[in-house]
Amino acid sequence: MEGKTPAPPDDFEILGLPDHGTMAEEIVLSENQIAPKPSYLSWEEAGVLPLSALTGYRALFTKGKLQKGETVFIPGIGSGVATYMLPMAKAVGAKVIVSSRSSEKLEKAERLGADVLLENGQDWEQSLHGEKVDLVIESVGVATFNRSLDLLKKGGTIVTFGASAGDEVSLDLRRFFYNQWNLYGTTMGSIEEFYEMLDLFQSHKIRPIVDRTFVLEDTADGLNYLSKSSQFGKIAIRIRE
């Protein structure tokens, strides 16, 4: 299904938890759960777009209120959501700083337009020579959360939606309120945000990064590959050849 993005429906239903998702040869869906495929995307690119891109869109713009000329820090570049947030932030004219423990992932992020690359083993503050950021999007957790706060300017915002490196962090409350920081949690997004995200992608011809594609019969191999965290971008499942 291709064409112009329609207005969001009023009676949109949940697809996925707690209901079944779409990893099947055939499924039956309400038309309210289907959006036109951007014509410039392949089926694999369109297939990996919705959830991660929506999560990133909400974190950047609804919660983070990222604006042209601002600076955003995205630790853990290489995850599906992070590889969406990088081009979305660049599309609105923001400066993007990323980090990773993988030099290969940093090189790929640079080709995607990242302005500053930080290795996880570096002293981030020292590497940025005192530069502070307006917004941090945190999805790593305990391993980077407080290090990310060190880069946040007074009155800045940190948005979190993940905790892959651990759920619990220690927080210096006095430091937090003296710096007038804002902390927001977020998950996924609304149908209205979904259509806003689609419009942003189509107006700037943003393409999802598909690391590998597996056929449906090899889904277990795809999940196993994903568990190693070596991918850059998304893993696609091709339903039919």
Short recap of the structure:
The protein has 241 residues and is α/β, with parallel strands linked by helices.
Secondary-structure-derived class: alpha/beta
Q: Enumerate how many helices there are, as a single number.
A: 9
Any guess at the CATH architecture of the domain at 51-185? 3-Layer(aba) Sandwich
Give the CATH class of the domain at 51-185.
Alpha Beta
Main β-sheet, in a few words? 6 strands, parallel
In sequence order, what are the helices and strands, one letter per element?
Answer: HHEHEHEHEHEHEHEHE
Overall 3D form: globular
Considering DSSP H and I runs of 4 or more, what fraction of the residues is helical? 25-40%
| CATH fold title of the domain at 51-185 | Rossmann fold
Strand content: 15-25%
Distance linking N and C termini: 18 Å
CATH superfamily of the domain at 51-185: NAD(P)-binding Rossmann-like Domain
Radius of gyration: 18 Å
Strand order of the largest sheet: 3-2-1-4-5-6
Q: What's the count of strands?
A: 8
Q: Ranges with pLDDT <50 over ≥5 residues?
A: none
Mean pLDDT figure: 86
